[in-house]
Amino acid sequence: MAASAPTPHATGFPAEGRCGYYVEKKKRFCRMVVAAGKRFCGEHAAAAEDENARKRILCPLDPKHTVYEDQLTKHLKKCNSREKPKPDFFIQDINAGLKDETEILEQLVPISSLSEEQLENLIKKLRKASEGLNSTLKDHIMSHPALHDALNDPKNGDSAAKHLKQQASILGTIEKLKLLGPRRCFVEFGAGKGKLSHWVDIALKDAEKVHFILVEKVTTRFKVDGKHRKKNSVFERLQIDIQHLCLNKVPVLRERKLPVVGIGKHLCGVATDLALRCLVETYAASCEERNEEPLAKRIKNDKTENEINTLAKEGNEKNVPEKWTPVAGIVIALCCHHRCDWRHYVGKEYFRALGLGAVEFHYFQRMSSWATCGMRKTSLEASNIITKRKDNQHDDNEKHDDGGYRITDDITDLPGLLTVEEKKKIGHLCKLLIDQGRIQYLQQKGFSPALQYYIDPLVSLENVLLTALPNHSSSPETSA
User: Fold this and answer.
1) Could you give phi then psi for residue 394, rounded to 5 degrees?
2) Which residues pair with 332 in a beta bridge?
3) For 108-112, 268-272, 330-334, which range has the lowest pLDDT when averaged over its residues?
4) Alpha carbon of 335 to those of 275, 346, 403, 410: distances in Å?
5) Does residue 273 carry a pLDDT above 90?
6) Which has the closest alpha carbon to 165: 178, 176, 151, 153?
7) DSSP per-residue letters across 19-77
8) I need a labelling partner for 216 at 20 to 30 A (CA). Which of 47, 48, 119, 149 fits?
Protein backbone atom coordinates (compact mmCIF):
# COMPACT_ATOMS: atom_id res chain seq x y z
CA MET A 1 0.00 0.00 0.00
CA ALA A 2 1.65 3.23 -1.14
CA ALA A 3 1.49 5.85 1.59
CA SER A 4 3.58 8.62 3.09
CA ALA A 5 4.36 8.55 6.79
CA PRO A 6 1.22 9.81 8.55
CA THR A 7 1.35 12.94 10.66
CA PRO A 8 -1.20 14.40 13.09
CA HIS A 9 -3.86 16.14 11.05
CA ALA A 10 -5.11 19.62 11.59
CA THR A 11 -8.64 18.33 12.20
CA GLY A 12 -7.65 16.43 15.36
CA PHE A 13 -5.93 13.33 16.69
CA PRO A 14 -6.82 9.65 16.68
CA ALA A 15 -8.97 8.28 19.47
CA GLU A 16 -7.11 6.65 22.34
CA GLY A 17 -6.02 3.10 21.51
CA ARG A 18 -6.77 3.59 17.80
CA CYS A 19 -4.48 3.65 14.79
CA GLY A 20 -2.63 6.93 14.17
CA TYR A 21 -2.78 6.64 10.36
CA TYR A 22 -4.78 9.37 8.63
CA VAL A 23 -6.83 7.95 5.73
CA GLU A 24 -6.84 10.71 3.17
CA LYS A 25 -9.64 9.20 1.10
CA LYS A 26 -12.00 9.06 4.09
CA LYS A 27 -10.77 12.31 5.68
CA ARG A 28 -10.33 10.69 9.07
CA PHE A 29 -7.97 8.57 11.11
CA CYS A 30 -8.04 4.77 10.83
CA ARG A 31 -10.31 3.34 13.53
CA MET A 32 -8.58 -0.02 13.97
CA VAL A 33 -7.49 -0.97 17.49
CA VAL A 34 -3.71 -1.11 17.93
CA ALA A 35 -1.64 -3.47 20.05
CA ALA A 36 -0.31 -2.28 23.40
CA GLY A 37 2.62 0.08 22.88
CA LYS A 38 1.98 0.40 19.14
CA ARG A 39 0.98 3.50 17.24
CA PHE A 40 -0.36 1.90 14.05
CA CYS A 41 -2.54 -1.10 13.18
CA GLY A 42 -1.14 -4.01 11.16
CA GLU A 43 -2.36 -2.64 7.84
CA HIS A 44 -0.65 0.73 8.34
CA ALA A 45 2.40 -0.32 10.31
CA ALA A 46 4.46 -0.34 7.10
CA ALA A 47 4.31 3.45 7.14
CA ALA A 48 5.73 3.69 10.64
CA GLU A 49 9.42 4.03 11.39
CA ASP A 50 9.14 2.12 14.66
CA GLU A 51 8.16 -1.11 12.85
CA ASN A 52 11.75 -1.73 11.68
CA ALA A 53 10.81 -0.92 8.08
CA ARG A 54 8.86 -4.20 7.69
CA LYS A 55 7.02 -4.01 4.40
CA ARG A 56 3.43 -5.10 3.82
CA ILE A 57 2.45 -6.33 0.37
CA LEU A 58 -0.79 -7.37 -1.31
CA CYS A 59 -1.66 -11.03 -0.84
CA PRO A 60 -1.16 -12.77 -4.23
CA LEU A 61 -4.21 -14.99 -3.56
CA ASP A 62 -6.54 -12.13 -2.67
CA PRO A 63 -5.43 -8.49 -3.16
CA LYS A 64 -8.18 -7.32 -0.81
CA HIS A 65 -5.81 -7.80 2.12
CA THR A 66 -2.10 -7.34 2.83
CA VAL A 67 0.59 -9.35 4.58
CA TYR A 68 4.13 -8.77 5.85
CA GLU A 69 6.50 -9.60 3.01
CA ASP A 70 8.79 -11.64 5.26
CA GLN A 71 5.81 -13.76 6.40
CA LEU A 72 4.34 -14.41 2.95
CA THR A 73 5.28 -18.11 2.77
CA LYS A 74 3.69 -18.80 6.15
CA HIS A 75 0.60 -16.76 5.27
CA LEU A 76 -0.03 -18.58 1.97
CA LYS A 77 -0.34 -21.90 3.83
CA LYS A 78 -3.26 -20.65 5.94
CA CYS A 79 -4.82 -17.89 3.82
CA ASN A 80 -8.59 -18.36 3.52
CA SER A 81 -8.31 -17.67 -0.22
CA ARG A 82 -5.94 -20.59 -0.87
CA GLU A 83 -7.10 -23.36 -3.20
CA LYS A 84 -8.79 -26.10 -1.21
CA PRO A 85 -8.20 -29.80 -1.93
CA LYS A 86 -10.73 -31.14 -4.44
CA PRO A 87 -13.28 -33.59 -2.97
CA ASP A 88 -13.76 -37.07 -4.45
CA PHE A 89 -17.01 -35.99 -6.14
CA PHE A 90 -15.18 -33.27 -8.13
CA ILE A 91 -14.37 -34.50 -11.64
CA GLN A 92 -13.37 -31.77 -14.07
CA ASP A 93 -16.07 -31.07 -16.72
CA ILE A 94 -17.85 -34.39 -16.14
CA ASN A 95 -21.23 -32.83 -16.94
CA ALA A 96 -20.01 -30.34 -19.54
CA GLY A 97 -20.88 -32.34 -22.64
CA LEU A 98 -18.63 -32.98 -25.61
CA LYS A 99 -16.84 -30.06 -27.18
CA ASP A 100 -17.32 -30.20 -30.94
CA GLU A 101 -14.24 -28.56 -32.42
CA THR A 102 -15.96 -28.26 -35.82
CA GLU A 103 -18.56 -25.93 -34.35
CA ILE A 104 -16.32 -23.34 -32.73
CA LEU A 105 -18.14 -20.08 -33.37
CA GLU A 106 -16.43 -17.23 -35.12
CA GLN A 107 -16.86 -13.70 -33.87
CA LEU A 108 -20.64 -13.25 -33.70
CA VAL A 109 -22.17 -9.81 -33.89
CA PRO A 110 -24.91 -8.64 -31.48
CA ILE A 111 -28.48 -9.02 -32.69
CA SER A 112 -28.72 -5.24 -32.88
CA SER A 113 -25.96 -5.31 -35.54
CA LEU A 114 -27.70 -7.82 -37.81
CA SER A 115 -29.12 -6.61 -41.08
CA GLU A 116 -32.87 -6.69 -41.61
CA GLU A 117 -32.47 -9.62 -44.03
CA GLN A 118 -30.34 -11.62 -41.58
CA LEU A 119 -32.87 -11.13 -38.79
CA GLU A 120 -35.76 -12.12 -41.06
CA ASN A 121 -33.94 -15.32 -42.06
CA LEU A 122 -33.37 -16.23 -38.41
CA ILE A 123 -37.03 -15.67 -37.56
CA LYS A 124 -38.11 -17.79 -40.57
CA LYS A 125 -35.88 -20.65 -39.37
CA LEU A 126 -37.32 -20.30 -35.87
CA ARG A 127 -40.94 -20.44 -37.06
CA LYS A 128 -40.27 -23.40 -39.34
CA ALA A 129 -38.51 -25.32 -36.56
CA SER A 130 -41.39 -24.55 -34.17
CA GLU A 131 -44.14 -25.84 -36.48
CA GLY A 132 -46.20 -28.48 -34.74
CA LEU A 133 -45.10 -27.52 -31.22
CA ASN A 134 -47.85 -26.65 -28.78
CA SER A 135 -46.94 -23.12 -27.76
CA THR A 136 -49.63 -22.99 -25.05
CA LEU A 137 -48.68 -25.01 -21.98
CA LYS A 138 -51.15 -26.23 -19.38
CA ASP A 139 -51.61 -24.26 -16.17
CA HIS A 140 -50.81 -26.31 -13.08
CA ILE A 141 -50.63 -23.69 -10.34
CA MET A 142 -50.36 -25.69 -7.14
CA SER A 143 -49.95 -25.00 -3.43
CA HIS A 144 -49.15 -26.95 -0.29
CA PRO A 145 -50.44 -26.69 3.30
CA ALA A 146 -46.85 -26.59 4.61
CA LEU A 147 -46.61 -23.00 3.39
CA HIS A 148 -50.09 -21.87 4.43
CA ASP A 149 -49.00 -19.85 7.45
CA ALA A 150 -46.00 -18.34 5.67
CA LEU A 151 -48.12 -17.32 2.67
CA ASN A 152 -50.61 -15.54 4.93
CA ASP A 153 -48.02 -13.78 7.09
CA PRO A 154 -48.83 -10.04 6.95
CA LYS A 155 -45.14 -9.23 7.45
CA ASN A 156 -44.29 -10.49 3.96
CA GLY A 157 -43.15 -7.95 1.43
CA ASP A 158 -43.74 -8.30 -2.30
CA SER A 159 -40.47 -10.18 -2.88
CA ALA A 160 -41.03 -12.66 -0.03
CA ALA A 161 -44.62 -13.32 -1.14
CA LYS A 162 -43.49 -13.90 -4.74
CA HIS A 163 -40.92 -16.54 -3.78
CA LEU A 164 -43.27 -18.26 -1.32
CA LYS A 165 -45.95 -18.66 -4.01
CA GLN A 166 -43.42 -20.24 -6.34
CA GLN A 167 -42.06 -22.55 -3.63
CA ALA A 168 -45.63 -23.59 -2.70
CA SER A 169 -46.47 -24.47 -6.31
CA ILE A 170 -43.23 -26.43 -6.82
CA LEU A 171 -43.83 -28.30 -3.56
CA GLY A 172 -47.42 -29.07 -4.58
CA THR A 173 -46.15 -30.48 -7.88
CA ILE A 174 -43.55 -32.64 -6.11
CA GLU A 175 -46.33 -34.12 -3.98
CA LYS A 176 -48.66 -34.61 -6.96
CA LEU A 177 -45.94 -36.61 -8.72
CA LYS A 178 -45.66 -38.82 -5.61
CA LEU A 179 -42.06 -37.80 -5.05
CA LEU A 180 -42.64 -36.43 -1.56
CA GLY A 181 -41.86 -39.40 0.66
CA PRO A 182 -39.35 -41.13 2.94
CA ARG A 183 -36.12 -42.95 2.14
CA ARG A 184 -34.84 -40.77 -0.66
CA CYS A 185 -32.38 -37.98 -1.35
CA PHE A 186 -33.47 -34.56 -2.60
CA VAL A 187 -30.72 -32.82 -4.58
CA GLU A 188 -31.39 -29.08 -4.90
CA PHE A 189 -29.35 -27.56 -7.71
CA GLY A 190 -28.54 -23.86 -7.48
CA ALA A 191 -29.72 -24.02 -3.89
CA GLY A 192 -28.83 -20.49 -2.77
CA LYS A 193 -30.10 -20.20 0.80
CA GLY A 194 -31.72 -23.62 0.54
CA LYS A 195 -35.31 -22.45 0.98
CA LEU A 196 -36.87 -24.97 -1.42
CA SER A 197 -35.30 -27.88 0.47
CA HIS A 198 -36.38 -26.20 3.70
CA TRP A 199 -40.05 -26.36 2.69
CA VAL A 200 -39.72 -29.91 1.36
CA ASP A 201 -38.35 -30.92 4.76
CA ILE A 202 -41.22 -29.23 6.59
CA ALA A 203 -43.76 -30.93 4.31
CA LEU A 204 -42.17 -34.33 4.99
CA LYS A 205 -42.64 -33.87 8.77
CA ASP A 206 -41.14 -36.97 10.41
CA ALA A 207 -40.48 -39.03 7.28
CA GLU A 208 -37.63 -41.49 7.80
CA LYS A 209 -34.21 -41.55 6.18
CA VAL A 210 -34.46 -38.34 4.15
CA HIS A 211 -31.26 -36.71 2.96
CA PHE A 212 -30.86 -33.29 1.34
CA ILE A 213 -27.88 -32.34 -0.84
CA LEU A 214 -27.73 -28.62 -1.58
CA VAL A 215 -25.51 -27.78 -4.55
CA GLU A 216 -24.28 -24.19 -4.83
CA LYS A 217 -20.99 -23.02 -6.32
CA VAL A 218 -20.70 -19.79 -4.30
CA THR A 219 -20.61 -19.10 -0.59
CA THR A 220 -24.10 -18.13 0.53
CA ARG A 221 -25.08 -15.98 3.50
CA PHE A 222 -28.19 -16.47 5.64
CA LYS A 223 -28.51 -20.18 4.82
CA VAL A 224 -31.64 -21.79 6.27
CA ASP A 225 -30.42 -25.41 6.16
CA GLY A 226 -28.20 -24.84 9.18
CA LYS A 227 -31.29 -24.38 11.36
CA HIS A 228 -32.62 -27.90 10.83
CA ARG A 229 -32.12 -30.30 13.72
CA LYS A 230 -34.52 -33.15 12.86
CA LYS A 231 -33.05 -36.58 13.50
CA ASN A 232 -34.70 -38.16 10.45
CA SER A 233 -33.41 -35.71 7.84
CA VAL A 234 -29.84 -34.67 7.12
CA PHE A 235 -28.72 -31.60 5.20
CA GLU A 236 -25.40 -31.60 3.34
CA ARG A 237 -24.16 -28.61 1.37
CA LEU A 238 -21.75 -29.06 -1.55
CA GLN A 239 -19.93 -25.93 -2.71
CA ILE A 240 -19.20 -26.96 -6.28
CA ASP A 241 -20.09 -26.02 -9.84
CA ILE A 242 -22.66 -28.48 -11.24
CA GLN A 243 -20.36 -28.87 -14.25
CA HIS A 244 -17.88 -30.84 -12.11
CA LEU A 245 -20.26 -32.73 -9.79
CA CYS A 246 -20.18 -36.53 -9.85
CA LEU A 247 -23.16 -37.54 -7.70
CA ASN A 248 -22.27 -41.22 -7.47
CA LYS A 249 -19.11 -40.27 -5.57
CA VAL A 250 -21.01 -38.36 -2.89
CA PRO A 251 -20.63 -40.65 0.15
CA VAL A 252 -24.32 -40.79 1.18
CA LEU A 253 -25.43 -41.79 -2.33
CA ARG A 254 -22.61 -44.28 -2.80
CA GLU A 255 -23.23 -45.97 0.54
CA ARG A 256 -27.00 -45.78 1.04
CA LYS A 257 -28.20 -45.95 -2.61
CA LEU A 258 -31.13 -43.61 -2.00
CA PRO A 259 -33.38 -42.75 -4.97
CA VAL A 260 -32.60 -39.17 -6.04
CA VAL A 261 -35.16 -36.43 -6.67
CA GLY A 262 -33.58 -33.51 -8.53
CA ILE A 263 -35.19 -30.14 -7.73
CA GLY A 264 -34.42 -26.50 -8.45
CA LYS A 265 -36.08 -23.10 -8.37
CA HIS A 266 -35.04 -20.83 -11.23
CA LEU A 267 -32.05 -22.83 -12.40
CA CYS A 268 -30.36 -20.32 -14.65
CA GLY A 269 -29.82 -21.17 -18.32
CA VAL A 270 -26.87 -23.51 -18.73
CA ALA A 271 -27.21 -24.76 -15.13
CA THR A 272 -30.39 -26.63 -16.14
CA ASP A 273 -28.54 -28.56 -18.86
CA LEU A 274 -25.65 -29.33 -16.50
CA ALA A 275 -28.09 -30.56 -13.83
CA LEU A 276 -29.97 -32.80 -16.29
CA ARG A 277 -26.74 -34.37 -17.51
CA CYS A 278 -25.53 -34.75 -13.93
CA LEU A 279 -28.70 -36.68 -13.03
CA VAL A 280 -29.47 -38.83 -16.05
CA GLU A 281 -26.00 -39.46 -17.48
CA THR A 282 -23.36 -39.11 -14.80
CA TYR A 283 -25.45 -40.56 -11.96
CA ALA A 284 -28.18 -42.82 -13.40
CA ALA A 285 -26.01 -44.27 -16.17
CA SER A 286 -23.13 -45.00 -13.81
CA CYS A 287 -25.46 -46.87 -11.44
CA GLU A 288 -26.61 -49.07 -14.34
CA GLU A 289 -23.03 -49.68 -15.49
CA ARG A 290 -22.11 -50.96 -12.04
CA ASN A 291 -24.94 -53.51 -12.38
CA GLU A 292 -26.14 -52.70 -8.91
CA GLU A 293 -28.66 -55.17 -7.59
CA PRO A 294 -32.17 -53.64 -7.59
CA LEU A 295 -33.77 -53.11 -4.21
CA ALA A 296 -36.61 -55.56 -4.97
CA LYS A 297 -34.09 -58.31 -5.75
CA ARG A 298 -32.09 -57.63 -2.58
CA ILE A 299 -35.29 -57.92 -0.53
CA LYS A 300 -36.30 -61.13 -2.31
CA ASN A 301 -33.05 -62.82 -1.36
CA ASP A 302 -33.84 -62.37 2.33
CA LYS A 303 -37.66 -62.47 2.51
CA THR A 304 -40.46 -64.89 1.82
CA GLU A 305 -43.09 -64.10 -0.82
CA ASN A 306 -45.65 -63.04 1.81
CA GLU A 307 -43.13 -60.73 3.44
CA ILE A 308 -42.33 -59.21 0.04
CA ASN A 309 -46.01 -58.48 -0.60
CA THR A 310 -46.35 -56.93 2.85
CA LEU A 311 -43.30 -54.73 2.28
CA ALA A 312 -44.58 -53.68 -1.14
CA LYS A 313 -47.95 -52.74 0.34
CA GLU A 314 -46.30 -50.74 3.12
CA GLY A 315 -44.04 -49.07 0.61
CA ASN A 316 -47.00 -47.94 -1.50
CA GLU A 317 -48.76 -46.60 1.57
CA LYS A 318 -45.66 -44.66 2.52
CA ASN A 319 -45.32 -43.23 -0.98
CA VAL A 320 -42.20 -45.24 -1.87
CA PRO A 321 -41.62 -46.00 -5.58
CA GLU A 322 -42.50 -49.62 -6.43
CA LYS A 323 -39.29 -50.04 -8.41
CA TRP A 324 -36.02 -48.60 -7.22
CA THR A 325 -34.42 -46.23 -9.68
CA PRO A 326 -31.35 -44.02 -9.32
CA VAL A 327 -33.36 -40.92 -10.32
CA ALA A 328 -36.93 -41.07 -9.03
CA GLY A 329 -37.94 -37.74 -10.57
CA ILE A 330 -36.98 -34.23 -11.67
CA VAL A 331 -38.79 -30.96 -10.87
CA ILE A 332 -36.97 -27.83 -12.05
CA ALA A 333 -38.28 -24.29 -12.54
CA LEU A 334 -36.63 -23.00 -15.74
CA CYS A 335 -35.09 -19.57 -16.11
CA CYS A 336 -32.85 -17.30 -18.18
CA HIS A 337 -32.63 -19.14 -21.49
CA HIS A 338 -30.43 -16.31 -22.76
CA ARG A 339 -27.70 -17.71 -20.51
CA CYS A 340 -27.65 -21.11 -22.19
CA ASP A 341 -24.53 -22.38 -23.95
CA TRP A 342 -24.27 -24.60 -27.04
CA ARG A 343 -21.48 -26.80 -25.69
CA HIS A 344 -23.43 -27.70 -22.55
CA TYR A 345 -26.90 -27.83 -24.14
CA VAL A 346 -28.46 -31.30 -23.93
CA GLY A 347 -30.68 -30.81 -26.99
CA LYS A 348 -28.00 -30.58 -29.68
CA GLU A 349 -29.30 -33.68 -31.43
CA TYR A 350 -32.80 -32.17 -31.60
CA PHE A 351 -31.48 -28.94 -33.11
CA ARG A 352 -29.37 -30.76 -35.68
CA ALA A 353 -32.36 -32.86 -36.75
CA LEU A 354 -34.12 -29.57 -37.54
CA GLY A 355 -31.20 -28.37 -39.65
CA LEU A 356 -30.03 -25.95 -36.95
CA GLY A 357 -26.63 -25.59 -35.36
CA ALA A 358 -24.47 -23.56 -33.01
CA VAL A 359 -24.99 -20.22 -34.81
CA GLU A 360 -28.79 -20.45 -34.78
CA PHE A 361 -28.74 -21.61 -31.16
CA HIS A 362 -26.62 -18.60 -30.20
CA TYR A 363 -29.10 -16.13 -31.69
CA PHE A 364 -32.19 -17.98 -30.47
CA GLN A 365 -30.93 -18.03 -26.90
CA ARG A 366 -30.21 -14.29 -27.15
CA MET A 367 -33.67 -13.58 -28.60
CA SER A 368 -35.29 -15.63 -25.82
CA SER A 369 -34.81 -12.63 -23.52
CA TRP A 370 -37.46 -10.79 -25.56
CA ALA A 371 -40.11 -12.94 -23.87
CA THR A 372 -39.44 -11.25 -20.53
CA CYS A 373 -38.20 -7.82 -21.59
CA GLY A 374 -41.52 -6.10 -20.86
CA MET A 375 -42.55 -2.83 -22.49
CA ARG A 376 -39.90 -0.47 -23.79
CA LYS A 377 -38.79 1.86 -21.01
CA THR A 378 -37.60 5.43 -21.08
CA SER A 379 -33.95 6.03 -20.19
CA LEU A 380 -34.91 7.21 -16.71
CA GLU A 381 -37.15 4.20 -16.06
CA ALA A 382 -34.47 1.82 -17.33
CA SER A 383 -31.94 3.45 -15.02
CA ASN A 384 -34.27 3.00 -12.06
CA ILE A 385 -34.81 -0.67 -12.93
CA ILE A 386 -31.08 -1.35 -13.16
CA THR A 387 -30.46 0.46 -9.86
CA LYS A 388 -33.23 -1.52 -8.18
CA ARG A 389 -31.77 -4.83 -9.43
CA LYS A 390 -28.34 -3.91 -8.07
CA ASP A 391 -29.87 -3.09 -4.69
CA ASN A 392 -31.62 -6.48 -4.58
CA GLN A 393 -28.65 -8.66 -5.56
CA HIS A 394 -28.49 -10.15 -2.08
CA ASP A 395 -31.99 -11.60 -2.40
CA ASP A 396 -31.48 -15.37 -2.24
CA ASN A 397 -29.05 -15.34 -5.15
CA GLU A 398 -32.07 -14.96 -7.46
CA LYS A 399 -31.23 -11.66 -9.13
CA HIS A 400 -31.65 -13.39 -12.50
CA ASP A 401 -35.42 -13.53 -11.87
CA ASP A 402 -36.03 -9.92 -12.82
CA GLY A 403 -39.80 -9.84 -12.56
CA GLY A 404 -40.24 -9.08 -16.23
CA TYR A 405 -37.66 -6.44 -17.09
CA ARG A 406 -34.41 -7.10 -18.84
CA ILE A 407 -32.44 -4.20 -20.24
CA THR A 408 -30.02 -5.46 -22.91
CA ASP A 409 -28.52 -4.17 -26.13
CA ASP A 410 -30.56 -6.80 -28.00
CA ILE A 411 -33.86 -5.10 -27.18
CA THR A 412 -33.05 -1.70 -28.58
CA ASP A 413 -32.07 -0.47 -32.04
CA LEU A 414 -33.20 -3.62 -33.83
CA PRO A 415 -33.32 -3.62 -37.62
CA GLY A 416 -36.81 -3.77 -39.07
CA LEU A 417 -40.05 -2.75 -37.43
CA LEU A 418 -40.77 -5.51 -34.93
CA THR A 419 -43.32 -4.46 -32.35
CA VAL A 420 -43.00 -5.28 -28.67
CA GLU A 421 -45.69 -7.96 -28.94
CA GLU A 422 -44.00 -9.55 -31.95
CA LYS A 423 -40.70 -9.68 -30.09
CA LYS A 424 -42.37 -11.24 -27.04
CA LYS A 425 -43.91 -13.99 -29.23
CA ILE A 426 -40.54 -14.65 -30.87
CA GLY A 427 -38.90 -14.79 -27.45
CA HIS A 428 -41.45 -17.36 -26.25
CA LEU A 429 -40.86 -19.48 -29.37
CA CYS A 430 -37.11 -19.43 -28.68
CA LYS A 431 -37.68 -20.59 -25.12
CA LEU A 432 -40.08 -23.31 -26.26
CA LEU A 433 -37.68 -24.62 -28.89
CA ILE A 434 -34.76 -24.76 -26.44
CA ASP A 435 -36.96 -26.53 -23.87
CA GLN A 436 -38.23 -28.97 -26.48
CA GLY A 437 -34.65 -30.11 -27.01
CA ARG A 438 -34.49 -30.86 -23.29
CA ILE A 439 -37.77 -32.78 -23.50
CA GLN A 440 -36.46 -34.98 -26.32
CA TYR A 441 -33.21 -35.58 -24.43
CA LEU A 442 -35.10 -36.82 -21.36
CA GLN A 443 -37.35 -39.02 -23.50
CA GLN A 444 -34.29 -40.66 -25.05
CA LYS A 445 -32.89 -41.27 -21.57
CA GLY A 446 -35.99 -43.20 -20.46
CA PHE A 447 -38.06 -40.47 -18.81
CA SER A 448 -41.55 -39.08 -19.33
CA PRO A 449 -41.01 -35.30 -19.24
CA ALA A 450 -43.49 -32.43 -19.34
CA LEU A 451 -43.57 -28.63 -19.37
CA GLN A 452 -46.22 -26.66 -17.50
CA TYR A 453 -46.98 -23.18 -16.21
CA TYR A 454 -46.58 -23.45 -12.45
CA ILE A 455 -47.19 -19.84 -11.40
CA ASP A 456 -49.13 -16.83 -12.67
CA PRO A 457 -47.05 -14.58 -14.99
CA LEU A 458 -47.99 -11.66 -12.74
CA VAL A 459 -45.89 -13.33 -10.05
CA SER A 460 -42.98 -14.16 -12.38
CA LEU A 461 -42.62 -14.18 -16.15
CA GLU A 462 -40.18 -17.08 -15.74
CA ASN A 463 -43.09 -19.39 -14.94
CA VAL A 464 -42.34 -22.71 -16.69
CA LEU A 465 -41.69 -25.89 -14.72
CA LEU A 466 -39.92 -28.94 -16.18
CA THR A 467 -40.93 -32.27 -14.65
CA ALA A 468 -39.81 -35.80 -15.48
CA LEU A 469 -40.46 -39.29 -14.12
CA PRO A 470 -38.86 -42.60 -15.12
CA ASN A 471 -41.01 -44.34 -17.74
CA HIS A 472 -42.07 -47.17 -15.43
CA SER A 473 -43.74 -44.64 -13.09
CA SER A 474 -45.26 -42.34 -15.72
CA SER A 475 -48.91 -41.39 -15.82
CA PRO A 476 -51.13 -39.54 -18.31
CA GLU A 477 -50.82 -36.39 -16.24
CA THR A 478 -47.02 -36.41 -16.37
CA SER A 479 -46.30 -37.55 -19.91
CA ALA A 480 -45.19 -34.98 -22.46
Assistant:
1) -85, -5
2) 264, 466
3) 108-112
4) 13, 16, 11, 18
5) yes
6) 151
7) ---EETTTTEE---B--TT-SS-TTTGGG-GGGTTPPEEE-SS-TTSEEEGGGHHHHHH
8) 149
